Description:
The structure is a single chain. The protein is mainly alpha-helical. It has one domain (12-143). It is built from six helices and two strands, in the order βαααβααα. The chain has a two-stranded antiparallel sheet. α1 (15-35) packs across α3, α4 (81-103) packs antiparallel against α5 (107-127) and α4 (81-103) packs across α6 (131-143). The chain starts with 11 loop residues before the first strand and ends with a helix. Mean pLDDT is 90; it is low at 1-5.
Amino acid sequence: MNNKSCPISLISVDSNIARINAFYVGLIFTVYLLVQNNALIFFLILDFATRIFLKKEYSLLFILSKNTKTIMRLESIKVDGAPKRLAAIFGLVFLISIAILHFANLTLAFYIFSVILLVCIFLEVVFSYCLGCEVYHLYKKVFV
């Protein structure tokens, strides 16, 4: 019996806004990898922290994503917000780790973490597949 369960919350989010947001994160992160401008990684860390610890409405990338959705006239697709929040927390942890690895000149680990982050972003943008729910399920299976 495969009893998958995701973290459930009463808050729903728009999947299209999340996908557009992931696209912008991926774009900014790719530029960061190409030009190694530390301001870009700090901007992403700040934006993720704003969405997680304050309000998503204060996030510049959320505002940009919401406006992009409006301009593109995409429908709202409501999904449970908990897996997306968990994915954002993982994203923040990865971004902070990547910044630390960059400053510590741990190049191999830096690129491994960067590739993992880009794969997660790619899955969200292209397939609307969020790894947050899968990681949560694995955690529950192993530790609960």
